[in-house]
Batch of 2 targets.
Target 1
Amino acid sequence: MAPAKKNDAPGKLIAVEGLDGSGKSTQVYLLKRWLELEGYKVFFTEWNSSAIVRKATRKGKKRQLLTATTFSLIHCTDFADRYERQIMPLLHAGYIVLADRYVFTAFARDAVRGCDRAWLRELYSYAVPPDVTFYFEVPLKTALGRILDGRTSVKYHEAGMDMGYSKDPYESFRIFQGKINQEYRRMTREYDFIKVDATEPPDVQQTKVREIVESKIDLPRYRWHGSMFPRHVS
Amino acid sequence: MARLDVSPARVITMLKSKRFYGKGLPGVDLEQLKGQLIVVEGADGSGRSTQIDLLRNWLERRGHPTVNVGLKRSTLVARELEQAMNGNILGTRTLSLFYATDFADQLENRIIPALRSGFIVLADRYIYTLMARSIVRGVEPAWIRSVYGISLIPDAVFYLTVSPKILVERNLRKHLVLDYWESGMDMHRTSNMYGSFIEYQRLIQKELKAMQELYGFETVDGNRSPRAIQHELRAKIEVILNGKVHRSQEGSDDSDSSERIARTATTLANGSKRDRASVRRQSATGHRSVDRLSE
């Protein structure tokens, strides 16, 4: 196992990043639908979704057992599980892997919680950099509005209540998201993010996203070949 | 090995203040950690737990409040980790990180608060076993060391070494069966469990020996009677509790344990590049294996 420098598997990795409320999940969903319907091999993976690890994460969050370090490590464990058992094998099998949040989410959130930035980068050094990283850029106010409008509650960790910024969850959420936004901005200088203006209408954004994917990835190579069941068998 | 040009008094002050191996934990004031962290490392069947029980009795009889910690005992993930291991479905890196989470939870919620209150923390294994297990399974040494850069440097690490043949006998006598993981069966090297156990324990011992130099362990011959081992441990811990530097080896080629720990503290706390360079210098006379750690 060597630290990952670049993706030399036949598959391609596309990551989407951005604040809660930036609309990135909608955009990656539409991208996935398009690629599927066009007949490409696609796999979609979401942050914090490994079945085995998630139980522990949920307990830790519910009982407020997590510190900055254990919060970071448990999410890295979750990521490693998806990475070792799905992302890597599927990249080797020639899939286009779509990741709703990737290591950059950890870099932003965990740094705000107080983890050392260099330690975080080392922690995730085993993960290959994405072939394309979309960063959905949105003014903080817009993102906050999208999340908070019509919501009756904000979750404890989502609001960064563990940071003790404010007793009011909404105020805490605003402060926390503002700090995450600063971390993302810092990373736009460090990493090769493709910025998407997330204030534009969703279909306009999607058109742009698809154009970029088409220009960066030789899509025909990722088409399913023939029927799943060869004719002479079925 | 060259002697350090630090006076005994200086070594004591270095020992008094705790340090992290690497980047450490956010929000911890090291000055406040007044207790002592004592680690006993060794394989299953090395007599580790027996020795820790005896140490605890001894320390508590002398009026030292004591806390025991060990692997897979965190509130946060112990049960989930156990379940995942029973299913044996996690990849090597995932398992390494799961263990690191378990360790970090205990470090922050048990070890550090206890040290802050002036307790003696007896750790039934620490990061070294965890690192060795990951390394023999192919994880990069530099990566796993960086992950455990969050950990405190113990005041003493005693490594109980027992020959694999004796380990296998003790384990069979006690349980009549060998543990799947302690036999390295997940590595699928052979279907012969007896042979696999011995081979796996040799690999782990090799890694721990390589770490010994870097991390300043005290090796304790675990092939002897429990009494003899306990006697040696108490004598060594006595020295630490008295805050005195062990001078028995003065004039010999080898620097003594307190200095070794202090030196490790210095080299490891100073970041990886200088650390690597100094490890190479220190190991110039031997220990080729140490170079593997510093890759």
Target 2
Amino acid sequence: MSTTGQPLVEIKHVKKYFPIRKGVLQREVARVHAVDDVSFAVQPGETLGLVGESGCGKSTLGRTIVRLLEPTAGEISFEGQRIEEYGPRQLRPLRRQMQMVFQDPYASLNPRKRVGTIIGDPMKIHKLGDAKERKARVEELLETVGLSPEHYNRFPHEFSGGQRQRIGIARALALRPKLIVADEPVSALDVSIQSQMLNLLEDLQNEFNLTFIFIAHDLGVVRHVSDRIAVMYLGKLVELSPAEELYTRPIMPYTEALLSAVPIPDPDLAAARERIVLEGDVPSPVNPPSGCRFHPRCRYATQVCEEVEPPLVEYGNGHLAACHHPLNVDAAALQRA
Amino acid sequence: MAERLLEVEDLSVHFSTVDGTVRAVDGVSFELERGKVLGIVGESGSGKSVTAMTLMGLTRDVNAHFGGEVRFKGRNLLELSESEMQGYRGAEIGMIFQDPMTSLNPVYRIGEQIVEAIQAHDKVDRRQAKRRAVELLKQVGIPNPESRVDDFPHQFSGGMRQRAMIAIALSCNPDVLIADEPTTALDVTIQAQIIELISRLKDELNSAVILITHDLGVVADIADEILVMYAGRVVERAQTRDLFYDPQMPYTWGLLGSIPRLDRPKPERLHSIKGAPPSVINAPEGCKFRPRCPQAFEKCVQEPGLENRVETPGHLDRCWLDVEVKRARRDATISGGHSEAA
Amino acid sequence: MGAVLVCIAVTFIVFLIFIVVPGGDPAQRIAGKNATPQNIINIRHSWGFDQPFYTQYWVMLKKMFSGNLVSYTSQQNVLTQIVQGMPATFSLTLGASVIWLFFGILVGVLSAITAGRLSDRVITVLALIGISMPVFWLGIVSRYYLAEGGIVSWFPDGEYVGITQSPAQWLSHMILPWLVLAVLFIGFYGRVLRGNILDTINEDYVRTAKAKGLTPRRILVKHVLRTSLIPIVTLFGLDFAAVLGGGAILTETVFDLHGVGQYAALSINNFDLPPIMGVTMYGAFFIVAFSMLVDLFYAYLDPRIRPT
């Protein structure tokens, strides 16, 4: 994993708004600010974890990066190429490089197609190899993800959730992509299957030199797989940090609250720790709060937080955060920032 | 000794289906005392939800066959007629479910749904019932209850809907609340709120809670006693600290080890349990966990009984391994685990 | 706004069909059997058939909206004819719809509650038979067996008697047509409702209702039916509008009710454009109007759709 050199994916000031239309003439009356000015770069071979709660925009951002959605504004670069305005024709060859794995293993596989077809179709669409070569490759992929080549002719409903997720991963790998965006790939799985899947993803990354953008709401899972982690809140990127540092030195109070909310399977520790329980609900992305979007729920909020949106600032070691009252930052670092 | 509200003895629930008999629950026993929280932990197919629904009589069906007893305040609920059972549901035992969006009827206002629950058991008029509904919403922490009581479910967020569900379940002051995966569909910051709410209400109302979940982190926080279920059986049962610090079942080790922990350094590889949960129709002979157990040996072809094998009374498990051998192996498996026993 | 556009589009399509489909020269038919070629040319001119089609279309629209459409064959004013037929059509619609809605729901609920058992199977077979029986066949058979001059003379044999003339007569004349028309819908609605109910019973909120300790009757009525009936409302609105708009062509004709539907059938037979246009507009109006009503009612029934 290189930390220098050209990033594989780079997004700058990406925005994605969804219009809400009312009335006979379908006028736009409001917008859902799903993703509101997010920028980061992902190096080849690394795993960027993208965390946040529902409505934060992480799934939308994931889909926008692979161009399943078109961004409302901003730049998306893949291997240096600017792809945000590509039409379907130009995107076609790129689709081989970027793939997506989805959350719901029960919904993301076509129930009428056999497993072999599901995995082999991407190759067929991109005209890679003849039928025999495709079959061989599919069987190879099935083994890679821990299934048996005999499963080629089965239907999705004959498999468990964990196995279906493996099929989804095999499909994503079929075209030998460089980037895989995994949208909550283990959330729907049982705990014991989750860990199998995470180990598998790690093995695959090492074997095929993949780059991952791993979207999840579970901070524990994300910590295990990620090199760096980006925290989103209501469409904004509020913290970006090397993985371990996020847990030992969270800077943004939202991250602190998020970490504090994660249940610890240890009764004494759980009882001893100070639980920060946030008041209220996540606000709607249609009318986000002014200034720092987290200010209504933040226990450190002051006047400035309500008025001015904090910029994303670097606090050393590649750790960025957007906060007027950053935590865990000594005065010196504060000066530098 | 607190009052024993619920005594489940050797409960079994079998369903006849076209594919065979599904032994969803097979010989489950436990007790629930007032003021306590019992956690039932298991993965899909473990039978935890079926157990919970059976306590409420929600699994009654032509194809369902029950065994054992479910004694609530002395009476065996399994023997009650359907109309007698209706008298218990909501009034004596309340239940909340996993997905609050689909668990609320979308065409009726929240207030109406609470009033309906109240009027099902208490003879009060609509106005009184509505006032109680507003009180309940306040108790469960919904802001502006007077106006929100007239909202529809889709106007509430996920966390608020679950709070409304809790309000409905507690509307007639039942002594037992069964929460079936109440936080699984919620964001982690809302999860914490809901768990805290359930715990607080239990204290305020002096009732008892059965919390069903697959998340060991959640039960570590509020449960007093925990049952671990696997393939329809209870495979380990202990007081919370005993379960986490001296787990006896290799399955439990597996579960504990599979969870990525925030409070510990990151392991190289996540411990995982190979294979998948067994079919509940054609369960394997002997110990149900044997095919996936790294510690399995010859004796395991015979199913172990649920017995107290460690010094701590009340800590039951289904594993043939000698306790000392077990502890040594366990501490090698779960890296960084607590080695001090309770 | 969209509704008006739909109506206009309908007229245009009908007109186009008429122009395109070969059916003989209207001028010739108006002129009659013994016309000379000059007659035909004269008629063609006075009626405006020699004009380009868009002019004809425009003229026809004007006539239609001013109530001056006149039939080619009978020279009668189309609007008057339609108005004359309305009482019969209305009576048929109102009575039959009440019957089919009531029994359709009854059948649906019964077969759903007893799903899988004998009564359900029996009802299902009967429903399928009801759906499969062609209306005209059933109409003719019922006349043959049950109407005056048939096997038993329980009912009058067709024709319509206005309610203002004689309520008793009106009723006895309408019973057979009502039943014949309703049979089809009962079967259909019953099946649809049964399916909806069986789906709804598995919904999570029904489980919640049970967990509250509600009685089965209350769960069925307040939770299950409330949701299962919503699609039926849509169906009913449109079916009602269709029949009201003269869509029960076969029933009206078989029973000789002289309603709007029968008028439509007659005009089609004669390939008579003005009445066809008139009836089509009339029918389109009802369908569009009821569609809007159904939409509004839907918003009342399902609060998720209401504008916030």
